[in-house]
Design goal:
heterodimer; A: 6-stranded antiparallel beta sheet; 40% strand; globular; B: alpha+beta; PH-domain like; 4-stranded mixed beta sheet
Chain lengths: 268, 382
């Protein structure tokens, strides 16, 4: 399978543009397309477009399981129907970075947070990875359901904030704030650790637990989890309404008084 | 000595690991790559077992040289991992026993969770299926004293609204028939006649039974009155009011559990539907048990059928209302029935029961209806 020729454009609101050789196919999240060249055919496929041993029912079940990982039931298949290279551009759904991950370098599969998958080559699978550790599922910040992306070639994942890739050697451990973990290669051990100090956990603002990742392998982290961002935006949206100047309010009061007064004036 | 396929990790090696083969010797493991030469030999004492992988089910053997992380190996696949564990002496490698314990406890946790969920589901299903028995069992746990207190407080709250006759012919008739029915009961019954033209009678938990004067006027024979009383007595004996309360509480709990939150409208709807359903069961129960009670006291039970039929007809012929004063308003006749739904099927059920269980020794009762009516007229006139 030939690799994509890709470029990531933009800084905070990114899109990835890649070139499909003649006959080459790519899969992307629904609704993520920005533009495509003339000879690229778009098709909706169930799930990740891969076949199942159990036929249509198996494909449907796979698609349902895939939809539990924060993706849609259907995805878009882009096929270059011409002989010439054609461009397609896939945009990120929110502020953040698009990171290309070469699955061959990561041992064939990576495990990512819900909804991290953006686009990839045809044949890559997005499956449900269930967190079997109750403690990690409850306190790890990623929930019980993550997505396992496996296959060959490059896959594009997206998360909000700035993404950072760290390679861990054997038994190297990194403490991460829960929620900042985006993905990891399949050998990495993901666990939670109690912060150890009641004072820190109550007043430190970091929560009761850290997520810990232990090598060997690669982990990806995000600087701004989407729920942290939405919290900031939400509080700003709520307080922003009341931030009009006092003069502005008086102006409204003056209009109301004027309207009421005009009623009485009209009567006389 | 078998070879085990592993992935080798280390500072100069690829991130996803390098495929290699591992052999476990007497006091060391030997690792070689695809070529035949031995790459590494590490003594068992230098090894340490650790948990690896997203599912925490992989075994990782790490070793250190000069206090810095030097490398590790992970068996490729579960079969290879089993081979490696079987080959390693468990007591010499630190962490291996803990590794086994933690992977095993992992499966215990999920078994526990699954079994708990299963248990809760099965017991819920049982609860719904054996709903009647559960409610009966729970109602029987309530002490007589509590029931009596509930009844007293209900009566107290009714007294300002309802005009009770305390003595006289009407109360005497009701009490006589009632006492005949309830001889030997664990409840101490109190009998009341209220000055209300509506054809109705009701039971309050703890053994308080109230008969409206309208019903007395409408009853053609004391057997009909006895039938109504037997029905109400069975409401008390079977603790229907308590069961109804518990039923409502259970439905409210179920609604809250399912919806998480419920507003007043939803609660009222749920309550209505559940009591409607419950009432139907309770009424037919009281009918049949009432007939049994009548027959056990040697009272002819056909009065119940005839009274029910009269009531059913009374709903229909409102136009003939002038014939009888108590049917002037349709709502007055319909009173007893509005709380007693599905009349025809009930009449049928009673008729069937009476036909199947004929009572040769049963007698008809007698009363002085004219004295009773005179007394009621006098009370109305006041």
């Amino acid at each position: 399978m030939t690799q994509f020729d890709y470029t990531v454009h933009g800084k905070d609101l990114q899109y990835v543009q890649f070139t499909l050789a003649g006959g080459q196919e790519a899969i992307a999240e629904q609704g993520a397309m920005m533009f495509i060249d003339q000879h690229v055919a778009v098709d909706a496929v169930l799930g990740d477009g891969s076949d199942s041993r159990f036929g249509v029912i198996g494909r449907f079940i796979n698609a349902v399981k895939r939809s539990l990982t924060g993706e849609s039931m259907f995805s878009s298949l882009y096929k270059n129907s011409s002989e010439f290279p054609q461009r397609i551009a896939i945009a990120a759904p929110g502020p953040g970075e698009i990171v290309p991950v070469n699955l061959d370098e990561q041992g064939g599969s990576v495990i990512c947070q819900k909804g991290a998958y953006l686009a990839g080559q045809r044949g890559q699978k997005v499956q449900l990875a269930f967190q079997k550790r109750v403690r990690v599922g409850l306190f790890g910040g990623e929930g019980f359901i993550m997505q396992k992306i496996s296959g060959h070639g490059t896959v594009f994942i997206h998360a909000s904030g700035t993404l950072r890739q760290v390679t861990l050697g054997p038994a190297d451990t990194l403490k991460i704030d829960t929620g900042c973990l985006v993905g990891m290669s399949s050998n990495v051990r993901y666990d939670v650790k109690y912060t150890g100090k009641l004072k820190t956990s109550l007043f430190g603002g970091e929560g009761l637990f850290y997520a810990t990742v232990t090598g060997p392998g690669t982990v990806w982290m995000q600087s701004l989890p989407i729920n942290r961002l939405s919290k900031v935006l939400m509080s700003a949206a709520l307080t922003g309404r009341g931030r009009g100047s006092a003069v502005g309010k008086l102006y409204l009061v003056a209009i109301v008084i004027f309207v009421i007064a005009s009623l009485f004036i009209g009567k006389q | 000595m078998s070879e085990i396929r592993v992935s080798l990790f280390g500072p100069e090696l690829p991130v996803a690991g390098q495929p290699a083969h591992c052999m476990v010797g007497e006091d060391a493991i030997h690792i070689r790559s695809h070529g035949s030469e031995i790459l590494l030999t590490i003594t068992l004492a230098a090894l340490r077992a650790e948990v690896a992988g997203f599912d925490h089910d992989q075994l990782q053997l790490t070793w250190r040289h000069d206090d810095r992380a030097a490398g590790s190996l992970i068996p490729s696949g579960t079969d290879e991992q089993k081979k490696l564990i079987a080959a390693l002496p468990p007591n010499t490698i630190p962490g291996l026993i803990q590794w086994r314990r933690s992977t095993r406890s992992q499966s215990w946790v999920w078994k526990g969770v699954l079994y708990t969920i299963g248990f809760v589901l099965v017991s819920l299903a049982l609860l719904v299926w054996q709903h009647d028995r559960v409610v009966t069992w729970a109602a029987n746990r309530v002490s007589m004293e509590t029931e009596k207190n509930i009844g007293e407080s209900v009566l107290k709250s009714l007294k300002p609204e309802v005009n009770f006759l305390s003595q006289g012919e009407a109360v005497k008739v009701v009490r006589e028939i009632g006492q005949q029915l309830t001889a030997g009961s664990r409840y101490q019954y109190q009998w009341y006649v209220s000055k209300d033209p509506a054809v109705n009678a009701f039971a309050i938990p703890g053994g308080i039974i109230v008969v409206n004067s309208g019903l007395l006027k409408r009853a053609d024979s004391p057997n009909e009155l006895a039938a109504v009383l037997a029905h109400e007595v069975q409401h008390v004996e079977q603790r229907h009011a308590l069961k109804n309360m518990m039923n409502s509480a259970a439905v409210a709990t179920a609604v809250l559990v399912v919806l998480g939150d419920a507003n007043a409208v939803v609660m009222m709807l749920a309550h209505q539907v559940s009591t409607q359903y419950f009432n139907r069961e309770v009424e037919s129960d009281a009918d049949l048990k009432g007939v049994q009670l009548l027959q056990s006291k040697n009272i002819d039970a056909t009065g119940m059928v005839s009274f029910f039929k009269k009531m059913d007809a009374g709903i229909g012929d409102n136009k003939d209302g002038a014939k009888d004063q108590s049917t002037e308003k349709p709502s007055e006749v319909a009173g007893w029935f509005s709380s007693h739904p599905d009349t025809l099927s009930r009449i049928q059920a009673i008729e069937e029961y009476v036909a199947k269980h004929p009572c040769g020794t049963c007698m008809t009762l007698t009363w002085d209806k004219s004295a009773l009516l005179a007394e009621l007229e006098k009370a109305d006139g006041k």
